Amino acid sequence: MTISLSSYPPQQIAALEAAYDAIVARKRVRFIAGLIVFVVLLTIAGLGAEVAPKTFVEKIGNFVGYFDRILNLDTGKRVWTDPAEWFWGWQKWLKLLAETLLLSYVGTGIGAIGAFCLNFFAAANVSPHPLARFVVRRFLEFCRTVPGIVFALIFVIAFGLGPMAGVLAIAIHSVGALGKLYSEQVENIDMKPLEGVRSTGASWMSSMRFAVLPQVMPGFVSYSLLRFEINVREASVMGFVGAGGIGQELVVAVRKFFYSDVSAILLMIIITIFIIDVCTGWLRGHLFGAGRRS
After folding, report:
1. How much is the pLDDT for 1?
2. pTM assigned to the model
């Protein structure tokens, strides 16, 4: 098989090379200019926020030194030399850790239900009315804009110390976060099944049930599992303001300078989150895999 290649005059080739070099040069200039603007803005933001590199260099030793202290027992030995002393309160800590998991589970469940009910009104392609879409979107923005720990602090003031405040804070923040993710999932559906169901005269509710839900349910479950994993970490921090769980015990250990207790509790939290991450990751992969095979 013979392939013929067009032959261009040297002058035309030189002109094309010059045009190509000019385009590359312009892109390079734009990239360098953008990088300079980014560095300048980052520097200005750092100065405005009083982020001093000199202070970071001078104080970094305190950070390293604290981690060195939490790895020592009261006797001066390293924590791993006496695990029984290190995890002396493991029974109490496990109960508090279980409380953290439960309040994360309940909060995520309530938040997922609320997001499920609201996301169809927020999705641009299926919302029954523009006003409903506007109101629901603003409500979801409010729920996810206010940090969960702020909600927890408010609910602690209202309901007192304990898991109730943590559950409500996680639920409200999850409504906002999951509602946004769910609505984006709905906005990316294939509209042909929905149009087919609507052509039969089905109601809006029936259209969501039979045309939209089958397409988005694996994604909804996947996002909910991811949110549960995130909420376990948030619940650990919410204990700092008295919202129950293992975080409440952790802040007591930090304030009373029980260094080895801090490292033991942190290690238990890290291992728990690692296990949850692996399990939810496997479930998400299984759900998406099942969705691709169907």
Report:
1. 47
2. 0.77
